[in-house]
Design goal:
35% of the residues lie in helices and 28% in strands. The strands form 3 sheets. Strands 4-3-5-6-7-8-9-10 form an 8-stranded mixed sheet, sandwiched between helices. The longest helix is centred in the N-terminal third of the chain and has 19 residues. The chain is globular. 48% of the residues are buried. The protein binds D-MYO-inositol-1-phosphate and calcium ion (2 copies). D-MYO-inositol-1-phosphate binds next to strand 5 and helix 3.
C-alpha cells in the first residue's frame, strides 16, 4: 500500500477513535449551527485537528482543505478532509457516519481513505491501482440498468431551493428502481457504490470534502461519476451522479428533465 495511504489511514483511525470515544456523550457536546440544519460539534473540530496533526508530522509540506478549518498551506499537494461526515446522524446516535480523506496533487485526486468507525470498515483507493475495503479489492456491482437497482441519495435539508425539482427526480427514480436509501453520510454512500452495495447515487449541493475520496474510489472500482448533466464539474457544483456504467447512464437520462440551470452546473 502506498505510504500516503498508510498515513491517511493512521489519521482517519485517530479521528475515528475520538469520534467513538465521545459517542455516548453527544448530549454534553457543544453544538453550533453553520446554517439551517447544518450542525458542527467540537468533535468535528477536534477530529479535523487530529487528522492535520497526524499528517503534518509525516508530510510537513502538505496543505489541507478541511471542512472545519478551511484551506491552509500547499495548494498543489493537499488533503481534502471531512473529519466527520454525517454529523446529524452522529448527534442522533444513528450509526452511519465516517471520516473521509482525499489526497489531491495538482488538481488530480490520487489517494482516498474512508473510515467507518462504527463497523471499523476501511475503504481505500489509489489512482490507477484500484479500490479496497479492509485490503480486499472492490468493484461496483454488475447491475445493468435501473431495474432492480438500489440507489442512494441525499435529501435537500439546508437550503430547500431545489426541493420541487428534487421531488420530481425522487418520484422517477423510486418508480423505476428497487428502492432508494438516504443514509445521511454522502462519503459513505459513495464508498458503498464503489463496494457494489448501492448501484448508484445522486445528490445536489454537496461540498468537495463530501466527494473527494468517494469519487476516486468509485472510478477505481469501475464506476462512473459526473455532474447531474454528465460533465466533470461536480467537484465545483456539488451536483453529482454516480454508479455502475449502465446505472449511471440511465440515472442521467431519468434526472435530466428535472434539471434547472443551477442543477445543470
Ligand atoms: C453531510 C452528509 C449528508 C449530505 C449532506 C452533507 P456533514 O455532511 O454527507 O449525507 O446529505 O449534504 O453536508 O455535514 O455531516 O459532514
Ligand atoms: Ca460532509
Ligand atoms: Ca462533516
Amino acid at each position: 500500500m502506498h505510504a500516503l495511504v498508510n498515513t491517511g489511514i493512521t489519521a482517519a483511525r485517530r479521528a475515528g477513535d475520538l469520534i467513538m470515544r465521545y459517542r455516548n456523550r453527544v448530549h454534553n457536546l457543544k453544538v453550533t449551527s453553520k446554517g439551517r440544519n447544518d450542525f458542527v460539534t467540537e468533535i468535528d473540530q477536534q477530529a479535523e485537528a487530529a487528522i492535520i496533526d497526524t499528517i503534518s508530522k509525516t508530510y510537513p509540506a502538505h496543505g489541507f482543505l478541511g471542512e472545519e478549518s478551511g484551506r491552509q498551506g500547499n495548494t498543489e499537494a493537499y488533503w481534502i478532509i471531512d473529519p466527520l461526515d454525517g454529523t446529524t446522524n452522529y448527534l442522533h446516535d444513528f450509526p452511519m457516519f465516517c471520516v473521509s480523506l482525499g489526497f489531491c496533487m495538482r488538481g488530480v485526486m490520487e489517494h482516498a481513505v474512508i473510515y467507518d468507525p462504527m463497523s471499523q470498515e476501511l475503504f481505500t483507493a489509489t489512482r490507477g491501482e484500484g479500490a479496497q475495503v479492509d485490503g480486499r479489492k472492490i468493484r461496483v456491482s454488475n447491475r445493468h440498468g435501473l431495474d432492480g437497482a438500489l440507489i442512494g441519495t441525499g435529501f435537500p435539508y439546508s437550503t430547500l431551493t431545489h426541493l420541487d425539482a428534487y421531488m420530481g427526480m425522487f418520484k422517477d427514480v423510486l418508480s423505476q428502481t428497487a428502492g432508494i436509501r438516504r443514509a445521511g453520510s454522502a462519503a459513505l454512500d459513495l464508498a458503498y457504490v464503489a463496494a457494489g452495495r448501492l448501484d448508484g447515487f445522486w445528490e445536489a449541493g454537496l461540498k468537495s470534502w463530501d466527494m473527494a475520496a468517494g469519487t476516486l474510489m468509485i472510478r477505481e472500482a469501475g464506476g462512473l461519476v459526473t455532474s447531474l448533466s454528465g460533465s466533470d464539474s461536480y467537484m465545483e457544483s456539488g451536483n453529482i451522479v454516480a454508479g455502475t456504467p449502465k446505472v449511471h447512464g440511465e440515472l442521467l437520462k431519468l434526472l435530466s428533465p428535472h434539471l434547472n440551470e443551477e442543477l445543470r452546473k
